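Example record

One chain of 185 residues, shown exactly as stored in the release files.
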Amino acid sequence: MSYFDREDVVVSRDCPAVTIPYGSPVTIEAGCMATITQRLGGSFTVLVEGNLYRVEGSDADALGQDVVEREVFVPEQPLSEKTIEDAAWIVLTQVFDPEIPVDIVNLGLVYTCAVSKLESGDYAIRMEMTLTAPGCGMGTMIADEARFKLQSIQGVEQVDVDLVWDPPWSRDMMSESARLQLGML
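Predicted structure tokens for this chain:
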């Protein structure tokens, strides 16, 4: 299923979800008709009775889809701050705003991604990111997903993701490919 393909499904069981753009938890009831509008980064955006919701990949079976399991990302060996940082940028391209079919890296939302080695021999990642709008109710969820993905990197023990507002995000921060994909070129 590509981004532009929509799929109508009947929800097979009560399914936890989050409202878009407010980020409030809800339950989509079994038997509801839903349209899958986006399937990116291991989660689904669905349209139910005129409202958008985000469904985690672990609940994909309720939508008649394959469950998305958490995978461990194995960076290039031997592990170093550089290989962990490279891995971090790769996994962050799998984090999407549920309303926009572009990852947070190409949207220009990730400001820093710094890696340091811990005394234990494992690594810590400190990331600063922003959102396209300060009032976005999905901000915490997007930051949590980034943290979750970064924690999936083999050798990473600690992850801190901070939402920052300076400098303010603008469309100029988007990659050329993101602008092209969104028809902004």
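Notes: The longest strand covers residues 33-40.
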